[in-house]
Amino acid sequence: MPVSRPSHLALGLLCCGGALFAVSLADAARLRQQRADSGQAMQALVRQLQLTDLCLFTEARYTRHPSQTDLHSAFQDHPLALEHFPSGSLLLPPANLRGHHERLDRETEVPD
Amino acid sequence: MNVWIEKQKYLIDFTVASLARRKAKNLGLLLVYSLIVFLLASVMLFTHALRQAANELLAGAPEIVLQRMVAGRHDLIPPGYLERIARLRGVQEKQGRLWGYYYDPVVKANYTFMVADDRLLAPGTLVVGAGLARTRGVAPGNLISFRAYSGKLFTFSIADILPAKSELLSADLVLLSEADFRAFFDIPPGHYTDITLRVANPLEVRNIAGKLAQQFPDSRPILREEILRTYDSIFSWREGIVLALATLALLAFAILAWEKASGLSADERREIGILKAIGWETGDVLRMKFWEGALLSLSAFLLGYLAAYVHVFHFSASLLAPVLMGWAVLYPRFELSPVIDGLQVTTLFFFTVFPYAAATLVPIWRAAISDPDAVMRG
């Protein structure tokens, strides 16, 4: 009868951890499949309602619809105003506010 | 090979016994270490899954949204714009959207009012998001009143509630008929909040946006690729709170590793001295300490990562929610589809496991090459 050694216990626990890691990957695949239906329903909703943003932060209009914000809404009170809302520290200024439309104007040639 | 394996097993036996001698200290270390990995992994898994969800969901967003700007602010689209856009070649579909924000003083929450063209909503009825229904405590058939910005009170009946599974998009939505929307916000006929365009050829989108910008100098075209890019950069590793959290966690980790690397406790020095004195070689001491670092850091990584996985995908990242909620009263309840990026997990592994293992080896090596007598005397 072999005596249970601490090394066997330690390596066994590590192997269990490794196996649980593998289980987490399998569980991720299972959950992805399970939640695919709601994903498709949401995609349909985006098309139906022509939505442009996720509903993550409802506290201010520029955090509710970051892709549709006014050009300077984060500094709406005055240019040095501190950000009002905590989500402002989570969100980047939207990509389209970083001079993109300006470049688009210069690229334009002749109107239709 | 068998001899080598047996030798490693004996070293691990000794390491585990040595760890057990300083149980409280090592358990505390394991706990703090696991917590750091848990925090980093939670943020990493959550933000990656959220970015992926945004990419998948918003792939169906309109190719172009045309806004009108007046004095630097978003303004209503006046009559005539839609007809002029119809003359642009390549535009497959165009539609004026009516939507806006409403602050509900009853629960101090902001809602998004929107006209749903494809739903035949009778005047006086609403379809609301599940988050709003939960916050206001309403159910289909209930009446709900909102005071318009004109001061007039409007009473609506709840026709339906949007599925709870779509809260990530619709928690705060209030869908109503066009007539109700115009009456509620006092928007004259022919005016719209913005215009959405579908373009037949994806290669033509930028070209059409250019033409729009030139034909309507007061307008701002927003492309779908910009919307997607916005969400791609939100919660990026380099930005905002994620950076703050990651920096704090890495700093905490650096302190932990530095504390380990900067010196050994008197107990550990004495232990190394005794081992050397009874005939252990420097290589054996290093191997033993390598196993100590490896067992501790691997256990912390596995514990932290697995806890983070369960937290994010089975408990909807409930510990991160207060951070994301900010001052918002209305917060969506959503379940993210797990997307695990192998590269991110590997990066996390390398940044947490290896520095610790390396940091523990340096002082051990310094102590192990010294004279046992000097080491034991301290």
Question: What is the structure about, briefly put?
Answer:
The complex is a heterodimer of chains A (112) and B (378). Chain A has 112 residues and is an all-alpha fold.
Plain-language structure description:
The complex is a heterodimer of chains A (112) and B (378). Chain A has 4 helices and no strands. In chain A, 49% of the residues lie in helices and 0% in strands. With 112 residues, chain A is an all-alpha fold. Chain B is an alpha+beta fold and 378 residues long. Chain B is 54% helix and 17% strand. Chain B is built from 14 helices and 11 strands. Classes of the chains: A mainly alpha (112), B alpha+beta (378).
Please give the structural blueprint:
The complex is a heterodimer of chains A (112) and B (378).
Chain A: H1 6-34, H2 36-49, H3 61-64, H4 100-107
Chain B: H1 2-21, H2 23-57, E1 64-70, E2 73-75, H3 81-86, E3 91-97, E4 99-104, E5 109-115, E6 125-128, H4 130-136, E7 143-147, E8 153-161, H5 167-170, E9 173-176, H6 178-185, E10 194-199, H7 205-215, E11 219-223, H8 224-233, H9 240-262, H10 266-277, H11 282-313, H12 321-325, H13 342-368, H14 372-377
Parallel strand pairs in B: 5-9, 6-8
Antiparallel strand pairs in B: 1-2, 1-10, 1-11, 3-10, 4-5, 6-9, 7-8
Helix pairs in contact in B: 1-11, 2-8, 2-9, 2-11, 2-13, 9-13, 11-13
